[in-house]
Amino acid sequence: MRRVKLTVAYDGTDYCGWQVQNNGPTVEGELNRALSELTGERITVIGASRTDAGVHGRGNVAVFDTNTPIPPARLVYALNGKLPDDIVAVKSEEVPPDWHPRHCDSVKTYEYRILNQEMPDPLRRRDTWHVSFPLDIERMRRAAEYLKGEHDFKSFCSAQSEVENTVRTIYELNLEKTGSLITIRVKGSGFLYNMVRIIAGTLMGAGRGAYSPEEVKRMLEARDRVCAGMTAPPQGLTLIGIEYPGAPSLS
Fold it and tell me: Worst-scoring range by mean pLDDT, 103-107, 112-116, 195-199?
């Protein structure tokens, strides 16, 4: 029995998120189906990040156990022939049999994209949040500075979350503007439910002048979801990748 690690990219628009659900198609469900067809085994993958409905991925990670004779590094080529066009297995490799994508130290990188122009672009409707009113990128950058480092992010977590520890560390939080496209790139040790989308909505609020950048510091200190900005819509969010410092590999 081998354990195989997959790196997976997907357009999440038409899926009810990563995790298998009864109310519609999911990325995990498609992977389970395709791998089971390919190997002739009953495969259930274990994912690293359970992205929400409409959220995209360029480098999500999953593992599964198999007895297939297909070499682990070659498995992606056969697998992609059985996956829908909006899901692609980018890489496959063997890892130790006890390696778990959620039980070891990792660094996750997300990007949130805002299309800041008067009229929407129909070609970017699936991967950006269209904001028609002007945003001040410098105000957004000043607001972002207060979120870097280790903080209690309870104000930036969905009220529906039941997690007990809301302390997280943001290593990097940068904003770039190219034409009408604003990209918020955040790297951290882990993220709470809806945390990146709430960060994006909060920075947008600072950029439009709804509150001062300095107000973000008070939002953190309040430890109350109602004190932070709105939750930005899912389509602008992409999980760029997950790094595992020092992780062993057999490939």
Answer: 103-107
Residue 245 has a pLDDT of 86
| pLDDT band for position 248 (cuts 50, 70, 90) | low
Evaluate whether 184 touches 226 at the Cβ level (below 8 Å): no
Q: Is 97 exposed, middle or buried (0-12, 13-18, 19+ CB in 10 A)?
A: exposed
With b for 16 or more beta-carbon neighbours within 10 A and e for fewer, the 41-57 pattern comes to eebebbbbbbbbbbbbb
Residues with a known catalytic role: 52
Residues forming beta bridges with residue 107, ordered by sequence position: 243
The secondary structure of residue 52, as a DSSP letter, is P
Q: Answer for the pair 128, 113: CB distance below 8 angstroms, yes or no.
A: yes
Q: Which two tokens stand for residue 58?
A: 């360029």
Report pLDDT digits (tens) over 155-201.
999 988 888 899 999 999 999 999 999 999 999 999 999 999 999 99
Give the angle subtended at the CA of 95 by the CAs of 99 and 76, to the nearest 5°.
125
Asked if residues 186 and 149 have their Cβ atoms less than 8 Å apart, the reply is no
3-state secondary structure of 123: helix
Number of H helices, E strands in the chain: 5, 10
